[in-house]
Amino acid sequence: MSRKSQDKTVDSMHDTMNVPLYSTRIVRTFLEYLAKHYPHISRKALLESADITDFEIEDPAHYLTQEQINRFHQQLMELTNNPGISREAGRYATSAEVLGTMKKHLMGIMSLALMYEIAGKNVENLSRHITFKTKKLGPYSIEVRATQRPGVHEEPFQCENRMGSLESLARLRTSSYAHIEHPQCIHRGDPQCRYIVSWEPTTEMKLRKIRYTMLFICSLWLVFSFSVFPASAWGIASLATIVMAIATIGYTGHIEKKTLRESLDSQSRSAYDLLDKTNRLYNNALLIQEIGQATTTVMPVHDLCRSVTGILRKYLDFDCGMVLLADERREQLVSAAEYGFSGSEPGQVGTTVFPMTDTAPGDPVTAPCLDQRPVLINDTTATYNPLPEDLKDFFPQTAHLFVHQCPDRV
Asked: What is the extent of the structural domain holding 81?
């Protein structure tokens, strides 16, 4: 390869390192696993090492770059000293709450082969860097092929995480992880990663097999015993055989109906979750539309702020909110409109003032205006991101979630 071609390849790799490819739900699965098995590891330090913010993690529509994923895993390895952490986190994927509706949808599928096929399509939404193809090999096995998209260069730990996720899917229907064979791997020079996934028969499959076997044996017994035993003995034996067959059919049918009922319940919960998500998206669209309409109307700044707070209160699930504007000297932030605070009316111009000078570094109120970056605090009492002493009295019972962003000038 010529030097020019090599430089072009390096530039291409550098470009794809900064392309958003990986949903934050992948990282949230790691964070849930760490909170359960490595509670001593600081979530904030881990995310900061990869230049990932809390509000990006909480946004399911946000995607991370390959560089951020690599830095996250590097710091994760240093903190846990566990070379198998990626595969372990992958095995935890089906237990993670972050999957939400997707998990409920998968649990409503009776066939494991179909579950793997649908999961593969969902994985392409979580990881935009690969394509998934599945092929059924038998009643208890399936072939999965993962192919990288052009220009993408994933790391070996991502393949390990993928294997862990494939193993964990079987536990939604069986009591053990699936068995994985990995004859081809991108990181061994193959054009794609190829996995042979096999699992144990589910309880429903075992009971169905027992039922059919029992019916077959009973039929043979009734036919061949008729010419061997006397009529009276054959009648008694036949009655006992029929009762045994009916009991077996009844029990296996009960188990199958119970499983089917659980599957339908899961599908029902999934449908309600999807409906709730649709309503939230619709409200968010109305929120953006009405704010856009308000901002295009020529009105005084304070009137605009009151209009915006009214819209926020209407569509967002926050008990209180406030719009702060910097004064002309940029020495303090003044409440332009607020709602939900003690004694305040919707859209009321408040008297709250926050100084912008002589503030502590990282002050969550003034930092967005001074540093031009948003701040999110999930818990005002958290030790990893505490509020300054002078703000603790201001946020006693306001909200656990506090989002604030201020324009440079008004």
From this structure: 11-198
